[in-house]
Amino acid sequence: MDPRDPTTLEVLRNPEKHEGIRTEMRGTLVNKSLEDGSVLLTVEKYDRYFDIYYEMVEDDEFDDFERGDLVRVVGISKLDSQGYVEAEIFYHRTMARDRALSLLSILGFVIVIVVIIIDRDVLKEMIFDA
Amino acid sequence: MPDGFTHVLMGWLMVELLSIKFEWVMKYRALVLFGAILPDLGNFKLIMGEFGAHEFYYVFLPFHSLIGVLLLVGIFSFIFKQEYRRRAFLLLSAGAFSHLFADYLMIYLEGKLPLFFPFAFERVGYGVFVQAGQAFIIVLTLAILATVLHRKVIRDRKKK
């Protein structure tokens, strides 16, 4: 379980206590379908499944969602006893974006190492000689 | 948090900006760049995916606060000789604060920055750029080019 989300964890443990609460959760997209012009996204969190209706702003937005994407739900408006969530706003990060993030991070570290190697004489002069 | 590449660009921009006023900064650019990635050194998720990401999350989270960054930079500055320590501290700090500033501008999936930890646990962030998006990288690249151009113009004027 994710220790970073105590609020969400509490909400999931006792959904009946927290109906209508506004909180945030992160989950993994497991399914998507089109329903009455909205996208129905099924998000998994702590082995529970949440249906999120999202109204598309652009027509091709449906294709943007991929299984495995991380979804952040901000602003839960309704939570019934079965644990279904209706979200008003959300932001999602694709697996492709996650991969890009990792690659760019490695690239950043490589650049710093290269600059350190290039400037090694300056650094050698500065570093404490044990 | 933005990716390492964006942080390096942010550090580079810091080097270019500081070089306008203090030309000697360019000689020690590696310190600013290292400072720019320093708060993320414990961020396993960026390098190793989910391995260890949750276990060490709260251990490394304070390094993204103002006090945490100063402590981290302070520890690292002790590897430098006495006469260079102050300079190293300032340059590493410049890089590390550029890191925090870049993080402050991000839209987060994981949660915002605990900038004022341990005095306040509230997380802050302005949420302008998306992680791994191109917009921030483009803005930073343009800013670096503008600063390089500006320095060149100043250098040419001095020569005349």
DSSP summary, beta strand count of chain B: 2
Largest interface: A-B, 33 and 35 residues
Q: In order across it, which strands form the biggest sheet of chain A? A: 3-2-1-4-5
Radius of gyration of chain B: 17 Å
Structural class of chain B: mainly alpha
N to C succession of SSEs of chain B: HHHHHHEEH
Q: Uncertain runs of chain A with pLDDT below 50, 5 residues or more?
A: 1-6
Described by its quaternary structure, the protein is heterodimer
Residue windows where pLDDT falls under 50 for at least 5 positions of chain B: none
Task: Provide structural commentary.
The complex is a heterodimer of chains A (130) and B (160). Chain A has 130 residues and is of the alpha+beta class. Chain A contains four helices and five strands, in the order H-E-E-E-H-E-E-H-H. Chain A has helices spanning 6-13, 61-64, 95-118, 120-126, and strands at 24-35, 38-45, 48-55, 70-79, 85-93. In chain A, a hairpin with a 2-residue loop joins strand 1 and strand 2. By secondary structure, chain B is an all-alpha fold. Chain B has a two-stranded parallel sheet. Chain B is 61% helix and 2% strand. Chain B contains seven helices and two strands; from the N terminus they run H-H-H-H-H-H-E-E-H. Classes of the chains: A alpha+beta (130), B mainly alpha (160).
Keywords for this entry:
heterodimer, A: 130 residues, alpha+beta, five-stranded antiparallel sheet, 4 helices, 33% helix, 36% strand, disordered N terminus, B: 160 residues, mainly alpha, two-stranded parallel ribbon, 7 helices, 2 strands, 61% helix, flat
In short, what is this structure?
The complex is a heterodimer of chains A (130) and B (160). Chain A is α+β, with helices and mostly antiparallel strands and 130 residues long. In chain A, 33% of the residues lie in helices and 36% in strands.
